[in-house]
Amino acid sequence: MLEWLPTAWIGILAVLLLWVPGLAVGYAGGLRGLVAWGSAPLVSSALIGGAAVVAGFAGVPWSVLVVAAATVLTAAVAWGVRALGGGWRSPRVDRSSPVWRRVLVTAAVSVVVAGVLQARRLMAAIGGPDHVSQTFDAPYHLNSVRLILDSGDASSLHMTLTTPDATTSFYPALWHDVVSLLVQLSGSSDVVVAANWTTLVVACLVWPASMLVLARGLFGPRPVMLGLTVAVSFAMTQFPNQLSGFGILYPNLLAYAMLPALLGLAWLTLWRARGRGRLVPLAFVGVGAAAMALAQPNGLFTLGYVAVPLLGHWVAHVSVRAWRLRRSVVGAVVPGVALVVLCVVAYWAAGQVSLVEEFRTQVSWPARATTGDAVNDALTLAAMHPSGSSNMLVAGLVLLGVLVSVFVARWRWLPIAYVVLAWLFVVASSADGATRALLTGYWYGDVQRLASQLPLLAVPLATIGLTVVVAGVASLVRGTPGTGRAARAVFSVPALAVLAALVLLVVLPRTALFKDSYDYVARRYVVSPESTTSTLLDESEMRILDEVDRIVPEDAVVAGQPWDGSVLVWALTDRETLYPHLRMPLEGDRAVVAERLNQAGEDPEVCAAVTRLGLEYVLDLGGENFWGDDGARFAGLDGLVAAGVAEEVARVDDSRLLRVTACEGTEG
Predict the structure, then answer these.
(1) What does pTM read for this prediction?
(2) 452-481: per-residue pLDDT in tens?
(3) DSSP per residue over 216-229, as a string?
(4) Residues 410-414: contacts with CB within 8 Å, 24+ apart?
(5) Which of 243, 272, 337, 513 has the largest count of CB atoms under 10 Å?
């Protein structure tokens, strides 16, 4: 824990960056209370990602000033939209009411306590702010941040890390935009520290705050249910724990953390606005959808699947109301027909996007379980747990919440939507063929991503179930003859709710179920003493990177076989590498260097490519290659010293830094 303290101010910067712009725009647009505070990261993210795209198009260098300007302009637009919407405001409790104070205290205390406890455990799992994730996706994301810092262009339309010769290439860059701003604001050059603090803030604060937006709509200003929502949000291993280690899927972590707020705003649009007043929350839903598209578009597809039961529930309500009030057949039938047409048109329109059509026809991950096993994993919340353990306590609360929701009008869509999410997980886990690709290709058929969606609706359902248990126990005690005043106080609903929250936040994380979950995260950040196929860098390889930082000029380019860990040289030393991704496409001069650099003394074409690329150094980390890659694509980087192409300038154990000498004085 202590090793995090010197950089804690970067975490504070992350909180300010993710909350201040969104609060300014949210309040200008009529959001208030928990809705404003909980959805602030969603709105801020849309501003940051959108500003990056506009700045990239206009050629304006990326900085926090761009975000500040975008915030001012968007706040003015939000104020105008609110005026057009008749001054709509999100539901809030009057400050003169004692309920307002209870809601405020409950929300603030629960988020702080739960967030601190979760942060403490994630900090211990990560190990330190400078510990790099030893996972497949980490080099791409960390190097993309470095690309943004070096180029001054943070647009999602210009993410050319793996296509350096292209003028445009789309990849959702919102997470990278946030981290790059943190690096700039902190005055540091350490991408890893900024990335790790962003992970903590997203997993420990953005997620529960976002869930409160959905809870505020579903449960109203009920302090007990709001407080329990925060506690339950950390009671499942599928999220945020799993995505804090797997991949590492930084963009998905951010998108899923903001998804409850977007769903909550959609709920408010349907149920807490009328007439032109719907313009305001609908606009915020559009803003949130933009944030989702720029963070990780599969979050939009999650919303699409969940929105169908939500819309169906609302349409059924409208139809029944029309029939009861006016006996209108047209009013009762047209909304349902309109919903069907809307779904068909939306599905067709999405399919016109080539990337979406590609998702629907292929998946990148194989099925891995039988249908029965997949159903069991979904029901018991064992889905993708590192050791396959079931979370029976919370699964039981979810089941109770499902049963109760059937009898409460505003919650009836929740069980159906949750079944949809569970069904998608089952399909991805066990199905084969075209159906699996059609339904789950938006997530590459990846069961990890689909399992991590389950808490989106499992949290409110478990909260409902836990509230019923708490209320039932309190009622039972009150109804017992001879119960004294002290017992009534101890077994009151608020007191029992606090006890239940502490069980979820303190006792449950100490069980083997959660210890395995945090151990899973920890293994992704371990720097082992010796090179293994499961890690990118070992201790000696980390030390040679210090030599790179000391010896290699800042404007020099470094080559290296990416699978031996050299892929991280750009992220960790701020020295550009030719191969910044493990599966970097090899074309043109980069292909020449990868295949024939050791022939530079006899092949003029090689030196011409070296000169055009500005290549001066080669990093050879030796040891085991990540995932056991044989390095065949980079055979030209072998035997450089023996071939007289390079000289050794630094060594740590079997890791070497080489300077290319064969092409000195050559013109490209």
Answers:
(1) 0.95
(2) 999 999 999 999 999 999 999 988 888 777
(3) HHHH-S-HHHHHHH
(4) 410/218, 410/271, 411/218, 411/464, 412/313, 413/309, 413/310, 413/312, 413/313, 414/218, 414/457, 414/460, 414/461
(5) 243
